Amino acid sequence: MIKTGIRDSYGREINYMRISITDRCNLRCCYCMPDGADWIPMKDILTYEEITAVCQEAVKLGITRFKITGGEPLVRRECSKLIRMIKEIPGTEVVTLTTNGLLLGEQLESLMQAGLDAVNISLDTLDKEKYKQVTGFDKLSVVLASITKAVESGIPVKINAVLQKGMNEEEWLPLTQLAKNLPLSVRFIEMMPIGYGNIPQSISNEELKDKIMRYYGNVTEDFRIYGNGPAVYYSIEGFKGNIGFISAIHGKFCNLCNRIRMTSTGDIKPCLCYEQRWALKPALRMEHKEKRQESIQKILIESIKNKPQMHCFEDVKSVSEKHFMGQIGG
């Protein structure tokens, strides 16, 4: 029986948590951390045991779906160990992973053995030189090999692409072709004004969708459920996979938001747009188990009850979150 998630003050069911396990990354994407970052000391980052303790209390509240993110989560040792620990919590439904794909190929087997349910792979271009320009590294072939291996393994695969004007805006065509040839989803994500994303280069998904529909012709909305998030999917005749759009700016979906986020340092963020956060670390490091569990639940409940009605990404001056995405959790 599926447990009903806790509801926020606007009646939205919250059943999904995105968990950052590190701020570190092995790429330097131009819209995330082109100049690197001052890494958080490991002593300040939650242990796997502490993350699992939060998930245990979250499941009791009806939050049963988890996404492991970073930074790049696979640069942290034994990521598969954490996935196994969360999957073993009674009531956990789904544990998925977002990655840039560089280490996925070599870790895929252990991740799947741990119970990983699906994987999202960030990829903004299929052009070798553009990939190097966007990410800072000549590693496109490694990512493509990881995608192939993941698809062949049978695990559900989604490709996440961010298009930027003057950078890779014409890459929509080769990226959509991935879904023609492989049974995966290619999702186009509008850039959100967070950190280095706070630049006027966003491409409207409405314009992109119109362009794709004109090019391919036979495009129909796909109403099947493909995960936890707000993507709207479309099927194209002759495609093995499908196309999705996550339109935070031009297709505001706050009324359907079902998530909270936890940073690698144990801060709960009910909305990506705002700086507002609730610190779990003091509760996690209480000695008395029952008090620790009670305090974690209270903080989760409080953060959810204070979840804003909607973001304000369309009004950049009102966005109060100043951290980069790699520091928050993708």
Automatic annotation (TrEMBL):
The keyword Iron applies. Its cofactor is [4Fe-4S] cluster. Keywords: 4Fe-4S, GTP-binding, Iron, Iron-sulfur, Lyase, Metal-binding, Molybdenum cofactor biosynthesis, Nucleotide-binding, S-adenosyl-L-methionine. Its EC number is 4.1.99.22. It catalyses: GTP + AH2 + S-adenosyl-L-methionine = (8S)-3',8-cyclo-7,8-dihydroguanosine 5'-triphosphate + 5'-deoxyadenosine + L-methionine + A + H(+). It holds the Pfam family Mob_synth_C. InterPro entries: Aldolase_TIM, Elp3/MiaA/NifB-like_rSAM, MoaA, MoaA-like, MoaA_NifB_PqqE_Fe-S-bd_CS, MoaA_twitch, MoCo_biosynth_MoaA/MoaC, rSAM. This is GTP 3',8-cyclase. Residues 9-222 form the Radical SAM core domain.
